[in-house]
Amino acid sequence: MKKGRLEAFTDAILAIILTIMILEFKTPESFQFSAIYSQIPYLISYAIGYLFIGVAWYNHHYMFAKTRWISRRVYWANNMWLFTTSFVPVATAWVGRGLNEQGPEIFYFIVFASWTAAYFFLSYQLVKANEKDHQPKAAAAIRSMVIYRYIANWKLDLLQGIVTVVALVYVPALQMVIVVLMIVFIGARFNKDSDHLID
Amino acid sequence: MKKGRLEAFTDAILAIILTIMILEFKTPESFQFSAIYSQIPYLISYAIGYLFIGVAWYNHHYMFAKTRWISRRVYWANNMWLFTTSFVPVATAWVGRGLNEQGPEIFYFIVFASWTAAYFFLSYQLVKANEKDHQPKAAAAIRSMVIYRYIANWKLDLLQGIVTVVALVYVPALQMVIVVLMIVFIGARFNKDSDHLID
Amino acid sequence: MKKGRLEAFTDAILAIILTIMILEFKTPESFQFSAIYSQIPYLISYAIGYLFIGVAWYNHHYMFAKTRWISRRVYWANNMWLFTTSFVPVATAWVGRGLNEQGPEIFYFIVFASWTAAYFFLSYQLVKANEKDHQPKAAAAIRSMVIYRYIANWKLDLLQGIVTVVALVYVPALQMVIVVLMIVFIGARFNKDSDHLID
Amino acid sequence: MKKGRLEAFTDAILAIILTIMILEFKTPESFQFSAIYSQIPYLISYAIGYLFIGVAWYNHHYMFAKTRWISRRVYWANNMWLFTTSFVPVATAWVGRGLNEQGPEIFYFIVFASWTAAYFFLSYQLVKANEKDHQPKAAAAIRSMVIYRYIANWKLDLLQGIVTVVALVYVPALQMVIVVLMIVFIGARFNKDSDHLID
């Protein structure tokens, strides 16, 4: 498959997912400035969603830049991943109306867990496609990404899952803190060559 | 016509069609997690729509990758096809509110049938444009696609039409099963070289 | 200015303008198939809007393919043109609720006239930019486009304006017929080399 | 980072931000032409927002055309800038319902000020990235942009801030005039080579 066209298609979808989140930021009926305060919970939720997609795009961009050959399997793994990503605005909207409510936070957790699984599946398919294409360096670069090693570490996943479930029972809003911590951890450390990919 | 610009334009439209479907996934007013259950029918409908566009994109991408020359006739066939595709979110939304209701399912059927006709017309114009451009290999590759042979087989179309009409009368939801079966059948088998198109 | 990036930006905006028109096609609350009949006026209006943008894109694509050099003046003429184009969905939505109502049809006329003026201004700036860039062939190609000669013919514009105003007074819906006739006239005849632009 | 992919991603986001503003232009329930007059305040607000994004895109395009190398830091500065830009449609919508109301105008001012800060931060990171990449000419070109020198001039910023605050207290609508003046000032004067960037 033509990599360039798939990247462009993916980027268009991610750009729309990112931008429709602002549609949920409702302007008040009133003209009092204070009327906007009611949107602060959504502002927080939106900022987290933005950070999330930002880190996701960066990692996606790196994996694809390393890859020369896109198989049909990778195409469908990418679609599955985009499908889970498309629920981020939904979860963001619901959580943004009740940051410390259990229902929205459980939904966010399910979306986040599905997203993580889909992302890992996509990475794994890219690793395999690169190996099949005799590009061991690209495969190794993807394997060495922080996000890949993080998700592949099932003890860490289990720990994060347990901590999140406990948080959901007692202080649902804590889940957003866990998500932010994970995003910052993954986003802040990166393969050194990521800065030196040139068109 | 410049192929690259038309591909990019088409991709942008498909990406928007794909992504606006999530706007119909409404977050509940309530904060009960169970309130989200009411969205399960739409979730199913959305997943099918996603699969649909995913298979469509893959086939479109392949046909265009094979083609060197875009005539005005192909441009308008492509527009007509995009026009029918733009009704997929509408049909998906209505069916998603009543998976087993006759009205929405008939509408879905009309959209699906129009889409199929438009897709075939586009393929046929691409075949002809390639023949005119002395690219018999590209024309043959498009003719040999599963989706092309499927639609070109009028006995199969007639059979599918009859089965769907019967389903619409007795168990409308069955239509979605037929659509999924067809999508999987077309999506799962593909020209071997589709995996080896490089930018 | 980099032509490629401006083309891509323009295409993204046109793709969104094209696609948000489907958002106005509302699915019925009811599950009766006949409930969708109420959307037929909008369907007609939407089809015309689609045709409109389709012809516009084709002409825009041709003009830009011929042009090597984008000045800041062209950039702003392009923006102004996109601004007027962004009102097409609005006019389409209003007319789609009352095909033979005077208010919506007058609004459509104003949008259409502004669009025509903005399109001509853009073409004219492209002609001048090409002349300044010592590309007389490109300038001549743009000047010889049917749409350019149509709009540049002030007698024709005046005639169309008068006929439309008379139509608006007596049978507002006739305006849509005039628009369709003009689009088909412009869309059907084209510079011969438009089919032979290669990436 | 691959510059081309980031530019395309940014353009898609800006195109969506630009275009969703038209969604707020509501068509009247009535069929009286005069019913559209109620949208005139929003029309003004929308035109200003459009001008704003148009100038922003032009400046962004120039800075990136000059830059060869995109660091992770620039990526995140770009994201932060896009995040602030995504609030332009929100501020535009609220101001468009009350052009001379204090609440919306204060909100617009906050969005505008955040946007300005984010834009400057992005420019500054691009200057630094270019210096690190031994591209002193590119760094100097960015530093010499009118928008860069305008924002970097803290006396001017302070003056504009004070005048705006006074306006907000007495005649809130004046703020829009100040914004337009600034946009026109920045948009009208530009580095000469901006017209001569070729793909």
UniProtKB/TrEMBL annotation, chains A, B, C, D:
Q: How does it sit in the membrane?
A: Multi-pass membrane protein
TM helices/strands, residue ranges? 12-28, 40-59, 80-100, 106-127, 158-186
Reactions catalysed, as given in the entry = K(+)(in) = K(+)(out)
The keyword Cell cycle appears for this protein: no
An example of a Gene Ontology cellular component annotation for this protein is: membrane
Q: Where in the cell is it found?
A: Membrane
Q: Which Pfam families match?
A: TMEM175 (PF06736)
Name the source's superkingdom. Bacteria
Which Gene Ontology terms cover its molecular function? potassium channel activity; proton channel activity
**Keywords associated with the record:** Ion channel, Ion transport, Membrane, Potassium, Potassium channel, Potassium transport, Transmembrane, Transmembrane helix, Transport
Q: Which family does it belong to?
A: Belongs to the TMEM175 family.
Stated name of the protein = Integral membrane protein
Organism, as annotated? Lentilactobacillus parabuchneri DSM 5707 = NBRC 107865
> Lineage of the native species?
Bacteria, Bacillati, Bacillota, Bacilli, Lactobacillales
